Amino acid sequence: MELTEMETFLAVSRHKSFTDAAWELRLTQPGVSRQIQKIERELETVLVERRRGDLRLTKAGEQFKAYAEEALERHGQFMTSLRAGIGTLSGDLSIIASTTTGEFIVPELVAGFTSLHPDVVPEVFITDTAQAIEELADTRWDVGFVGARLPGRGLRYEVTGEDEIVLAVSVSHPFAKRGEIDIAELEGQPFLEREGGSGTLRSVHAALAKYGVTLPPHPVTMGVSSSQAILAGVDRGFGVGWVSALAFVAGWKGRVTPVRLNGLPLRRSLYLVQNRQRALPAVATAFADWVRNERKAKVAPLSRRKRPAQ
């Protein structure tokens, strides 16, 4: 049983709602439900009951709530004492990341962590999601960051952020001034596309599949290896392409603009990934724990705000 699953259960118990717990944790409602069901299967008992829109904990649920609270508190105390015992943290930290996370998420995390621990020497390797997962499964790196969750491989995925995928078009393109288009209008549009192992491209297909739709036929004018390469190609008139909204840094303003699909939001989670069989060195353990705490610090203010009315 994962600590993140306990945190999800406690969020459900606080809010008495799967939907509100998902909003606090920046997860999907089905994702929260799956985690609760996984815990119930493991414990072979029902923890949560739903009756006429009301959610309440069973007796076993109340017992598990107390256990989870104690377990998370003891874990926090252990990590605090461990870090205190380490003293000056030093050593190598190896990170593998998919293109989007490697370009726009990991640098900020590494900079923040090494500012606290200047004797840590990070190494970051950026590739596509498929290769990142393969190398993590082979225990070649301490931790990884990716934009898609792939099946199997004995890895532990933890949500560390949210992302939106948009269509990048040149400011001179007919779509540019509209902001939103119907998916059918993509038929015949020339596309620049990421390589087959790209998490961004996988996420587009997965998100559309949830709506029961697929991309219409379109020619691919160029295959590229990064979101910045897509933006450069779009800027030069080679076509349009899917990129993370994070890719729209200041340098592209006035040259390339994002366009969304009408009624089809393309959202995905970004993940911190570890190999379950790999015993992490102290530096990597401290880094992963710091990343989790950074996410909690960002989510906490949201959980204190009133959820918008539906």
Polypeptide structure, described:
43% of the residues lie in helices and 24% in strands. Among the domains are: 1-87, Winged helix-like DNA-binding domain superfamily/Winged helix DNA-binding domain (Arc Repressor Mutant, subunit A), CATH 1.10.10.10; 162-267, D-Maltodextrin-Binding Protein, domain 2 (3-Layer(aba) Sandwich), CATH 3.40.190. The strands form three sheets. Strands 3, 4, 5, 6, 7, 10, 11 and 12 form an eight-stranded mixed sheet that branches. A two-stranded antiparallel sheet has the order 1-2. α1 (3-15) packs across α3 and α2 crosses α3. The protein is of the alpha/beta class.
Helix and strand topology:
Elements: H1 3-15, H2 18-25, H3 29-43, E1 48-51, E2 54-57, H4 59-86, E3 91-98, H5 99-104, H6 106-116, E4 120-127, H7 129-137, E5 143-146, E6 155-170, E7 180-181, E8 191-194, H8 199-210, E9 220-224, H9 227-235, E10 241-244, E11 256-261, E12 267-275, H10 282-304
Parallel strand pairs: 3-4, 3-5, 7-11, 8-9
Antiparallel strand pairs: 1-2, 5-12, 6-10, 6-11, 6-12
Helix pairs in contact: 1-2, 1-3, 1-4, 2-3
